[in-house]
Amino acid sequence: MADTSPTRTTPKPLIVVVEDEPELAGLIAEYLERAGMRVQVCNRAGHAIKFLQKNFANLVLLDLMLPDQPGFEMYGELKAANINVPVIFLTATVEEASKVHGLDLGADDYVTKPFSYAELVARIRAVLRRAEYKDDSNLTRNVRVSDEAFDFCGARITPVRLEIEFPGKDIMPLGRKELGILSYLNAHHGEVITRKALIHSVWGQHADVRSRSLDQYVVKVRDLFKKKGLDLADFRTVHGIGYIFDPKKVSTKGV
């Protein structure tokens, strides 16, 4: 009997091409689509930033010379907005200092014009493979298995084992999202963290997660600590905004 079940296909990666030369952008898009990728062309940095704020992309091809903003500057804006998408810079300059600067900023690769389209496709695929492998070691958007253990309100959290240890060697498993929340709070002592910032950091920039869902995870964490008799006075809710973890008591925010 023939198998009539639907065939699962791998989603095509979405590549955002930020290039102000229409003819070149069109040729790049054509070759990438032939190679099995989806393409979104943006002729301005501002257009690309707005698109990436609302849509997930697998990779950005970013020209350094754009009419409204230099490519390096746009890359900095993406990082500041916590849009952590792999980036390959495209440029006509062959100056080594420029390439080194781009790579030092954190770019994944650097391609000099004119380039072979076959080589460009190969470089994109290589970066996509590295990005996929890198994500394999992520427990959440903000926590990797290699992260060091840390203390939180009297408990010891160990990411590599997804464990939380309470006084008396009482060790329990810890969910990934709970781990991500505690890790982010621990990394921002004394700072008021908005619910939106916490969601983006743990779930990702484009995750469809509501504040109520985040609050439920926080309630679960609070209940666990209370059952173990630990004081959560340093982990407070800031009404209408989010949360604060303040073990050094430098803030009066929250109740």
Structural summary, described in words:
This protein is an alpha/beta fold and 255 residues long. The chain folds into two domains: 14-136, Response regulator (Rossmann fold); 150-245, Arc Repressor Mutant, subunit A (Orthogonal Bundle), CATH 1.10.10. 39% of the residues lie in helices and 20% in strands. The chain has helices spanning 22-34, 45-54, 71-80, 96-105, 117-136, 176-186, 195-203, 211-227; strands at residues 14-18, 38-42, 59-63, 87-91, 109-112, 150-152, 155-158, 163-166, 170-173, 192-194, 235-238, 242-245. The strands form three sheets. The chain has a five-stranded parallel sheet with strand order 2-1-3-4-5, sandwiched between helices. The chain has a four-stranded antiparallel sheet with strand order 6-7-8-9, covered by helices on one side. Strand 4, helix 4 and strand 5 form a beta-alpha-beta unit. Helix 2 runs parallel beside helix 3 and helix 6 (176-186) crosses helix 7. The protein is elongated and about 65 Å long.
Number of domain modules: 2
The helix/strand class is: alpha/beta
Element-level helix/strand string: EHEHEHEHEHEEEEHEHHEE
Major beta sheet summary:
5 strands, parallel
CATH superfamily name of the largest domain? Response regulator
CATH fold group of the largest domain: Rossmann fold
End-to-end gap: 65 Å
The number of E-state strands comes to 12
> In what order do the strands lie side by side in the largest sheet?
2-1-3-4-5
The CATH C-level name of the largest domain is: Alpha Beta
Average the pLDDT over all residues and give the rounded result: 86
Report the sheet-strand fraction: 15-25%
